[in-house]
């Protein structure tokens, strides 16, 4: 009997379009002999709609331009699945589900909100649980937990948005602690949205106001002199560690535009580092994954400094999942093809 797999895509997030591209790739790679895919699109306004069209229309964001049925997750104990609403005659239909695959990047998808909703239904779902998703999404909480676990992170301070925030005083405090350059990041956001590299007060003032447009808390980190690497992790108790990759960019950092265009950047997989450094990166990736209570999948991003020290950058619990994204590419290098990855992720969800 096929597994009824609900794939959630879209969402009320700055990363809505990224979700569409990831979901389209997953849908095209779902083994049809194993799964009945039920596609649930979430509009940017938050409407949940049952979608029965092609992956191409998801990819180019024309999926919702037709008369689609609203759906909602059933929270009762009578059945596990969706309720499809027929607005013409006020009737409803039950759609049973065995597993949910939330392909929702960023806020309201990767931060524990959807995960908490799924946990309430009792339906198995792919990826980290609510608590782990929330702490991994919040860059300050990630810093605090990982430092307590003995994992090196960049020195940082956090600040909360307030009309009374003394921006000049904060700048002086940060520069005294770290010197420049520094990075300002929204505490809860992904795809490098709202991140700025700062060299002086004018850039600091602009950067902190931009970051506060995306979150009411920001994290200010010391700039690390080095380059970025990443490592894919998959599993619950028993972990599979993918190949280590390397970001080679001419820009100040691997920003949103570069992540999805790579005009001035290139991804090297495997990374151009020694075998000893690769082994250390994999060890840190596993330690980070376990410290933050991750399940299913995550991509751990790190820096390699000029003296070959590895420092944790952040962790992504729903990394990009297009055919060309870093996460599936790292696993492909160790023999896990995309279709096998989907099967494995659903198996891990069902065993919880």
Outline the fold blueprint.
Layout: E1 3-10, H1 16-29, E2 35-42, E3 48-51, H2 55-59, E4 69-73, E5 81-86, E6 91-96, E7 99-103, H3 113-121, H4 130-137, H5 139-148, E8 156-160, H6 167-178, E9 182-186, E10 196-198, H7 201-211, E11 217-222, E12 226-235, E13 239-249, H8 256-261, E14 265-268, H9 275-291, E15 296-305, E16 310-316, H10 326-332, H11 338-350
Parallel strand pairs: 1-2, 1-7
Antiparallel strand pairs: 2-3, 3-4, 4-5, 5-6, 8-11, 9-10, 9-11, 12-13, 12-15, 13-14, 15-16
Helix pairs in contact: 3-4
Which radius of gyration do the C-alpha atoms yield?
21 Å
Structural class designation: alpha+beta
Number of strands: 16
Task: Bin the helical content.
Answer: 25-40%
- What is the H-and-E element order? EHEEHEEEEHHHEHEEHEEEHEHEEHH
Low-confidence segments, given as residue ranges, are none
Estimated share of beta-strand residues: 25-35%
Q: Tell me, briefly, the overall form.
A: globular
Intertermini distance: 20 Å
- Count of runs of 4 or more consecutive helical residues: 11
The biggest sheet, with number of strands, parallel, antiparallel or mixed sense and barrel status, is:
7 strands, mixed
Strand order of the largest sheet: 6-5-4-3-2-1-7
**Average of pLDDT:** 92
Indicate the multimeric state: single chain
Q: In summary, what is this structure?
A:
The protein has helices spanning 16-29, 55-59, 113-121, 130-137, 139-148, 167-178, 201-211, 256-261, 275-291, 326-332, 338-350; strands spanning 3-10, 35-42, 48-51, 69-73, 81-86, 91-96, 99-103, 156-160, 182-186, 196-198, 217-222, 226-235, 239-249, 265-268, 296-305, 310-316. It has 352 residues and is α+β, with helices and mostly antiparallel strands. The protein is globular, with a radius of gyration of 21 Å.
């Amino acid at each position: 009997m096929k597994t009824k797999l609900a794939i959630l895509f879209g969402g009320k997030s700055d990363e809505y379009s990224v979700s569409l591209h990831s979901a389209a790739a997953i849908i095209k790679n779902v083994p049809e002999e194993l799964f009945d895919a039920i596609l649930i699109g979430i509009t940017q306004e938050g409407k949940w709609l049952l979608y029965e069209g092609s992956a191409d229309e998801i990819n180019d964001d024309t999926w919702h331009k037709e008369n689609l049925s609203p759906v909602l997750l059933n929270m009762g104990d009578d059945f596990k699945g969706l309720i499809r609403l027929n607005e013409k005659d006020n009737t409803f239909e039950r759609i049973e589900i065995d597993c949910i695959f939330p392909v929702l990047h960023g806020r309201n998808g990767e931060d524990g909100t959807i995960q908490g909703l799924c946990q309430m239904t009792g339906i198995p779902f792919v990826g980290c649980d609510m608590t782990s998703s929330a702490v991994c999404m919040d860059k300050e909480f990630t810093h605090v937990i990982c430092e307590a676990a003995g994992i090196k992170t960049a020195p940082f301070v956090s600040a909360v948005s307030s009309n009374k925030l003394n921006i000049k005083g904060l700048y002086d405090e940060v520069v005294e602690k770290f010197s420049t350059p520094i990075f300002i990041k929204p505490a809860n956001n992904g795809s490098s949205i709202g991140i700025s590299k700062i060299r002086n007060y004018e850039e600091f003032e602009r950067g902190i106001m931009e970051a506060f447009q995306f979150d009411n808390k920001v994290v200010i980190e010391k700039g690390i002199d080095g380059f970025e690497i990443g490592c894919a992790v998959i599993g619950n108790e028993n972990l599979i560690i993918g190949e280590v990759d390397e970001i080679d960019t001419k820009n100040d950092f691997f920003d949103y535009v570069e992540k999805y265009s790579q005009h001035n950047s290139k991804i090297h997989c495997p990374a151009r580092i020694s075998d000893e450094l690769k082994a250390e990166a994999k060890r840190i990736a596993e330690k980070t994954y376990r410290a933050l209570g991750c399940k299913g999948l995550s991509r751990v991003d790190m820096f390699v400094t000029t003296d070959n020290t590895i420092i944790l950058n952040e962790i992504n619990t729903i990394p990009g999942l297009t055919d060309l994204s870093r996460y599936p590419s790292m696993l492909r290098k160790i023999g896990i093809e995309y279709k096998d990855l989907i099967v494995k992720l659903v198996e891990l969800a069902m065993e919880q």
